[in-house]
Design brief:
Blueprint lengths: L2 H16 L3 H5 L15 H5 L6 E3 L3 E5 L9 E4 L6 E2 L14 E2 L4 H10 L3 E7 L10 H15 L3 E6 L11 H9 L12 E3 L18 H9 L2 E3 L1 H6 L16 H4 L1 H4 L14 E5 L6 H9 L5 E3 L1 H4 L2 H13 L4 E3 L6 H14 L3 E6 L3 H14 L8 H10 L11 E5 L10 H4 L7
Parallel strand pairs: 3-6, 3-8, 6-7, 8-9, 10-12, 10-13, 11-12, 13-14
Antiparallel strand pairs: 1-2, 2-7, 4-5
Helix pairs in contact: 1-16, 13-14
Amino acid sequence: MSSRSLDAFIQFSCYTMKRQPYSVINETSKPKMRQMTLVPTENLSQSINEELWENTVSLLVYTHPKCEPSSKILGLDMDGTIIVPSSGKVFPKDYTDWKLINDNIISKLKEYFDKGYKIVLLSNQGGITKGYQDIPSFKLKIQNIVDKLNIPIQGFFSILNDKNRKPLTGMWDFLNDKGNAGIPIDLSASLYSGDAAGRPASGKRKKDHSCADRLFAQNVGIRFLTPEQLWFDQLDTEKFEMPKFNPIELLTNDDVQNSKLPIINRPNKSELILMVGYPASGKSHFCNRVLAPLGYEVISRDNVGTWQKCVQAVEQAISKSLPVVVDNTNMDLESRTRYIKIAKVWDIPVKCFIMETSMEHAQHNERFRALTNSSHKQISQMVYNMMKSKYEKPTMEEGYQEIVTIPFILDKNMENLSLYCKYLLEK
């Protein structure tokens, strides 16, 4: 695919995503096949005890009438941790298609319950919003599971890909703030178990679909157990893979803490700077905070639309003897060459500024933007993958006066810093 085709694809992708429902755009896990669910009958709806349920925009909350608050919480994922489809299929065919995953569950939960733990389900259920299952049948399914377990349970079910979806801590925050009768939760005494633990395939067990449960526990600050560790007291010897980008290191890693921006002097004549980096790698922040105050004309597709208009804007700025910075991704040689040719015509120096931000870090930034800015036009995983495959590292042979690497500098005074320094992606 040519650079022009890549630019067109990115523009089309952002346009089509804008027209998608919020929950569809934000889904970071692999797409699931549509499940067949029974349409609830009037009798089914009448079987649901709505007094036990609280509905918010993105949460369904269930509380058994005998569920008591506690400072100690045993948090549990549901699918793949407590239940699996009884049909043997990957996804349940209807709300009755489930069974307990093993025979130890009831006795083990009773053991924790007798020790004073409050048993709490914390489960991502984005399939509800996508139409894979309906709310009435899901509620009845939960009530039937609780009846089977015969233990007072509370449940939080995230139905949108927002702050409540694991590994984000919205469900836990709701539990702590509104769902525990004001009793503070003792994090050191609480724990969480789930099957999304970042483990590779082993024996008959397939590779975990994500690391969301392990990351959720880490974000909350509680001990994590795999289902095998919880139900069978298995030793913690299994290998697992954490995400390549660790946001916590931005606050703890000395090398990151000591990173400094290069010294950039105010230009006394026209020159051209080409930024290179993934979307959400910090290019625009750097251009607007560092280069624009030095007199650089910042030109970006975000502002003018197409790369053709960017080329025209660069030519106009250089014709006025202005220093210019092109704030685009410029991941491949073809993208950069179109601007380098202009600089050669006007006989001005060209510099290349490469953002050190990795793709995984940039995707973290992208997720943070989506969580904190509802008007943000989100970028798909497909676009990131395509950019990674098209990336050609800039070299001096392209005609640069110098190539400068720009580190990512965390603003410790930024709004929502605590959110930024949590794991935001599921793997």
